[in-house]
Amino acid sequence: MAAEATPRINARYLEQFTNTTVRILGRVKSLRGESATIDASGSIQLHLNRDAHLTLNNAVEIIGKVQPDLSVKVFQAMDFGSNIDFNAVEAVVDATHRYREIFYSAD
Questions:
Q1: What is the pLDDT of residues 63-107, one digit of tens each?
Q2: Apex CA 54: angle with CA 50 and CA 59, to 5°?
Q3: Cβ neighbours of residue 49 under 8 Å, at least 6 residues apart?
Q4: Most buried pick, 13, 23, 33, 35, via CB within 10 A?
Q5: pTM to 2 decimal places
Q6: What one-character-per-residue DSSP string does 5-67 give?
């Protein structure tokens, strides 16, 4: 059985991936109980699971499902620290969608 594809997206692509599991790399802007907001070329509201341990202003990679209200239900979160080149992150996201046939099915 093949693993489910998790396209890399940012806030600009949320609407295109509603009800889809995705990957997002962004900077943690706020934490409130079981929710958080990250900046990934725009604000994204996250619904955290109990295993998510985020640090304010650090980069975090999220694997989660985009909800109908364009928030993201987090399945997994990995702290990437504070030394991330977000220009490189944007370049990877752009390449992922420019050459999507390499990275994921457009179904």
A1: 999 999 999 999 999 999 999 999 999 999 988 888 777 776 665
A2: 140
A3: 74, 75, 77
A4: 13
A5: 0.88
A6: P--EE-GGGGGGGTT-EEEEEEEEEEEETTEEEEESSSEEEEE--TT----TTSEEEEEEEE-
Is the Cβ–Cβ distance between 48 and 16 less than 8 Å? no
Residue carrying the six token digits 């995705």: 22
Q: Per-residue pLDDT for 2 more than 70?
A: no
Residues 6 or more apart from 24 whose CB is under 8 A from it? 8, 9, 10, 38, 40, 44, 61, 62, 64, 72
Tokens 């999220």 map to which residue? Answer: 62
